[in-house]
Amino acid sequence: RYSVQKILIYKKDYLISGGGMGDIKLWDLKVLERDKEIKLMEGHEEFIIDLVLSKNNLLISCSKDKSIRIW
C-alpha cells in the first residue's frame, strides 16, 4: 500500500507524490488512475520529507534518511 507524505503540482497537469517508502511518483492528472503513475523515481531509503521544484524545473527531494536528491 502506498502512503503519501508530500504532494506537489507540476505544470497544472501533473502531480508529484513522495511516499512513505522513499519513492517519488509522477502522475498525469488528465488520466489519473490508481497505481498508474507515469514515472517512478527511487533512491531514498526512508520516507520523503519534502519536494521542491527549482526555477529550472529540477525536482529536489529530501528524506528522513538525511539525503537530498536532484532528479
Q: Count the strands?
A: 7
The global form is: globular
Mean pLDDT: 91
Uncertain spans: none
Summing up helix and strand content along with how strands pair, one would put the structural category as mainly beta
How many strands, which pairing sense, and closed or not: the largest β-sheet? 4 strands, antiparallel
Radius of gyration: 11 Å
Tell me the fraction of residues in β-strands, as a range. over 45%
Largest sheet, spatial ordering of strands: 1-2-3-4
Helix content: under 10%
Helices, by number, come to 0
Note the gap between the termini: 24 Å
Compressed to H and E, one letter per element, the order equals EEEEEEE
Properties at a glance:
3-stranded antiparallel sheet; globular; mainly beta; 4-stranded antiparallel sheet; single chain; 71 residues
Give your account of this protein's structure.
The protein is mainly β. 0% of the residues lie in helices and 49% in strands. The strands form two sheets. Strands 1-2-3-4 form a four-stranded antiparallel sheet, with no helix packed on it. A hairpin with a 4-residue loop joins β2 and β3 (24-28).
Summary of the model, kept short:
This protein has 71 residues and is mainly β. It has strands spanning 4-10, 14-19, 24-28, 39-41, 48-53, 59-63, 68-70.
